[in-house]
Amino acid sequence: MTDTGDQSDPDDGDSDGPSNGPDGTEVDDADSASEDELTGASVGTDLDDVVLDELDADGDGESGEASRGLFDDLLSGEPIFENKEVLRPSYTPHKLPHREEQINKMATILVTALRGDSPSNILIYGKTGTGKTASAKFVSEELETTSQKYEVPCEVEYINCEVTDTQYRVLAQLANKFIEKNEAVIDDRVAELESLRERAREDDAELADSEFDGVEAVTEEIDDLESDREGFEEVPMTGWPTDRVYSSFFDAVDYHERVVVIMLDEIDKLVEKSGDDTLYNLSRMNSQLENSRVSIMGISNDLKFTDFLDPRVKSSLGEEEIVFPPYDANQLRDILDHRSDVSFKDDALSDDVIPLCAAFAAQEHGDARRALDLLRTAGELAERDQTDLVQEAHVRKAQEKIELDRVVEVVRTLPTQSKIVLFAIMLLEKNGVRNINTGEVYNIYKRLCEEIDADILTQRRVTDLISELDMLGIVNAVVVSKGRYGRTKEISLSVPLEETEAVLLSDSRLGDIDDAEPFVQARFDN
Ligand SMILES: Nc1ncnc2c1ncn2[C@@H]1O[C@H](COP(=O)(O)OP(=O)(O)OP(=O)(O)O)[C@@H](O)[C@H]1O
Fold first, then answer.
1. 300 lines ligand 1 (CB under 6 A)
2. Residue 515: is its pLDDT beyond 70?
3. What's the CATH class of domain 414-521?
4. Looking at the predicted structure, is the pLDDT value of residue 451 above 50?
5. 134 annotated as belonging to a binding site for a ligand
6. How crowded is residue 53: how many other Cβ atoms within 10 Å of its Cβ?
7. Best mutation site among 369, 373, 375 for ligand 1, i.e. most ligand atoms within 8 A of its Cβ?
8. Is the C or the N end of the chain the one with fewer CB within 10 Å?
9. Would you list the domain boundaries of the chain?
10. Which ipTM score applies to this complex?
11. Is 488 in the pocket of ligand 1 (CB under 6 A)?
């Protein structure tokens, strides 16, 4: 999964500033930079109304006196964070408590690369936020550092398949990375050879320890390298036939001796979007490569995605499997303890904050990202309250806020038809209808579709869409028996009405509905 953490970020803009600049440096910037912009834009004043003279009456360029105090109050409290970045998903921790076993297993497999052989392919599984990416990145960094130490050529390439989700893009991205690396290797070598040639021109003995028998041989080698370099052609992001991209990648990897570990994060997304061709091609490369070796490390939180793979790909990819189990509350507590030491000021957290964040996140499904989000959001809420102590209430508020942000995001990204169905349910609920049934939803749904000129789906399809909304946790649909009248679904909204309405109305199509009341009045009509 991606870093959903950032979605739950409570308006970074306004809380980061005050927390980061307690010593006045940021204040100076804010004052002198563009007072008009800050005051005008932030409080929603029309910029044309801002009279610059008032801000800098004496024209000496110092507008500090005229500050309207927008930031002063926010800055006056003691800051809570020492270094908030440490709590963000983008930060890679140096220590990963409770992942020693998985990290050691990865290292045991990958150490083969340092001996110049290709390590087995690895598949890493585990639910979201269980530290898969963080652990894999940690191990790759170690691997690359050690390979430099022992001068064994070994490289790790990371690809996030949620972003790079087609065979073309994966191969093009890899090809271009290796071309870049090859160019760097050539540049270094050419510089070395040029200096050797220079010295050899003065004194032949300089070549004694080299593979060259004369200055001409050095020049020849330089020319060869330069012509190789000129032969490299960057792969465009679209437009080439896939086999040309593949051979470009193949040649780039095989340009010199090395072991390459290709880390495919969210590998299930790649398979879902574009099948298993990429994995098939990558997994059979080794039999054709002459100088280099390739090994694949796939990361997924979908345990079932291998069911869709060609059996050959499946067995080759899953040579080694490592499972990342969810964290329990105690483990999450350790993780938060470690991170909070660096991220918060001393004594900024009351005793129950970390255990509560850990407990909430453990209930979720042992997700460390969620636990860190909670802790950071709680800190930001405390900061807004201008207190210097994060307390249990801040954590509870943070939990609500994150949940709401999640809902808003889910609703915002629903397909239009689901949005119309949800809008119908919301209208009924808003008008006080209880125990809403599918027929009522369908009637209003149809009228809404007519109003905005959308296709009208069958009642059966709409029932399916309601079930999907139920699975997403947006509505609650329970089947109730009506005796001899059969069974029906009773539907209610499981998310806050006001926010849901606001998100739905922000959709350009639904936003066109002027007045929805009449639709509800007509809910019993057919
Ligand atoms: N053992 C740990 N110690 C410290 N931080 C951790 C640990 N495990 C996870 N984290 C932190 O939790 C967050 C999520 O971890 P990570 O991205 O590795 O999860 P993931 O399993 O790859 O999740 P997803 O499948 O959603 O990508 C990151 O900020 C990471 O630094």
1. no
2. no
3. mainly alpha
4. yes
5. yes
6. 9
7. 369
8. C
9. 4-79, 100-179+240-324, 329-410, 414-521
10. 0.98
11. no
In 228-324, where do the E strands start and end? 258-265, 292-300, 320-324
Strands 487-493, 122-126: pairing is unpaired
Specify the ligand 1 atom closest to the Cα of 338: 4
Q: How confident is the model at residue 70, as a pLDDT?
A: 67
% of the chain beyond a pLDDT of 70:
83
For tokens 């390590």, name the residue.
Answer: 119
- Which CATH code of 3.90.226.10, 3.40.50.300, 3.90.1150.10, 3.40.50.1010 fits the domain covering 100-179+240-324? 3.40.50.300
- Among residues 304, 370, 353, 297, the alpha carbon closest in space to that of 131 is found at 370
Task: Kindly state the average pLDDT of the residues 98-114.
Answer: 94
Residue pair 326/363 in contact by the 8 Å Cβ criterion: no
Q: What is the Å distance from ligand 1's center to 346 Cα?
A: 24
Average pLDDT of the chain to the nearest whole number: 83
From 94, 124, 133, the mutation candidate for ligand 1 (largest count of ligand atoms within 8 A of CB) is 133
| Reported confidence tier of residue 380, pLDDT bands at 50, 70, 90 | very high
Nearest to 126 by CA among 266, 1, 301: 301
Query: Higher-confidence residue: 387 or 252?
Result: 252
Q: Judge whether 2 is annotated as a binding position.
A: no
Q: Is the CB of 160 under 6 A from ligand 1?
A: no
- Reported pTM: 0.72
Distance 8 CA to ligand 1 centre (A): 16
Q: Which of 389, 344, 469, 429 is nearest to 82 (CA)?
A: 344
Centre of ligand 1 from the C-alpha of residue 381, in Å: 23
Phi, psi for residue 44 in degrees, rounded to 5:
80, 20
pLDDT of residue 356 exceeding 90, the answer is yes
